[in-house]
# Entry
Amino acid sequence: MAGRPEESHWQERAAWLKAELNRHSHAYYVLDNPSIPDAEYDKMFRELVELEQAHPDLVTSDSPTQRVGGQPLPQFEQVRHAIPMLSLNNAFGEDDIVSFDRRVREGLGETGEVAYSAELKFDGLAISLRYENGRLVQAATRGDGTTGENVTANIRTVRAVPLRLHTDNPPAVLDVRGEVLMFKGDFARLNERQREAGQKEFANPRNAAAGSLRQLDPRITAQRTLRFFAYGIGVLEGAEIPHSHSALLDWYASLGLPVCRERTVAKGARGLLDFFHDIGEKRRGLAYDIDGVVYKVDRLELQQKLGFVSRAPRFAIAHKFPAEEAMTVVQDIGVQV
Ligand code: NAD
# Structure
C-alpha cells in the first residue's frame, strides 16, 4: 500500500526520539546529572512535538510530550499534589509569540490587546510550599507533576523561605509555588569547596540547586546557599484569591515571600517582545541563571477560561533564549559538554 514505508519511518523516528528523550530526562531530573545540553534536548523534544502534531496516532502515554518532569526518587516520602504542578510550553522565536497571543485572543474571543504578566524563567527546580495558618508545614518537589518528594526538612534550612508568613490574618491553607535556585556567586563558591575537598563539581547552578535540595541529610542542604522566588499558586483556603497574577505576586511580597522584581505587565505580542529584548540585555548582569522569560495571561478569570492542554497551561508560555547563548553560559563556567 502506498505511504507505508514513509509511515514506518516516522514511527521509527518517533520511537527513537521518545527513547532518547526519556533516557536524558531520567539523567536530568532523577539523577541530577544531565547527559546532553538543554538546547539539544529541546531540539529533539520539538521535533517529537511536530511529528506528533502531524501524526496524532504516534502519541503514546509514555511519550515525554505527555509527561511533566521525572519520577520522584524512592528514598523520599512521596507527596501527592492536590493541584498538579505542570510544565510550560516553549516558544523559541518571535513568530511563536505572535501565534501564542493570537491563540489566546481567539480562545477568549478578544478583539483588543490582552494584558500579560511577564516574568523571568528561573533556571532552578519547581517547589510547592504549603502554609497552614501562616506556618510552613510542607515542601514538595514537582516530581512527575502529580507526585513529588517531601523535602520539608531541607527547605527549612533555606533562609529565603519564611517559616511563617508576615501577616496577622493568614489563609487557612496556601500552596505557594515557585523556584528553588542557586545564585551564580554561591555556585562558584560551592564548586570551589567541592574542588578543595576532592569532590565532584556541579555542572551548573540548576544542577547544584537540585542536588542540594534533594539530599537525604538536611545538614548538607544547610551548608549550601539556596534561594527561592515565588511565582504561582496551588490550593488556597480561607482567603480571596487576587484578581490577577501580578496582584498575586504583590500579595506574596507583602507576606514576606521572595518575589523577583524583574517583572512587568505587558500588552499584546509587541509588549511581550519588548520585555524579552529588555531582559536579554540584562541577563548577564543578573545574579542568577535564567533560560528565558515566561508570559502568563494576567487576569486569573481569563486563565481559567483558557484552561490546560495535557502537560501545560494554554494561558502561559516560556519564551526561551536562543540555543547559542544557552551553550555560551555553560562554557562560561568552564564545563565541558
Ligand atoms: P520548563 O523548564 O520548560 O518549564 C517549566 C518550569 O519552569 C516550571 O516547572 C518551573 O520550574 C520553571 N519556571 C521558572 N520560572 C517560572 C515562572 N516564572 N513561572 C512558571 N514556571 C517557571 O519545563 P520542564 O518540563 O521543567 O523541563 C523542560 C526543560 O528541562 C527543557 O526545556 C530542557 O531544557 C530541560 N531538560 C534538559 C534535559 C537534558 O538532558 N539536558 C533533560 C530534560 C529536561
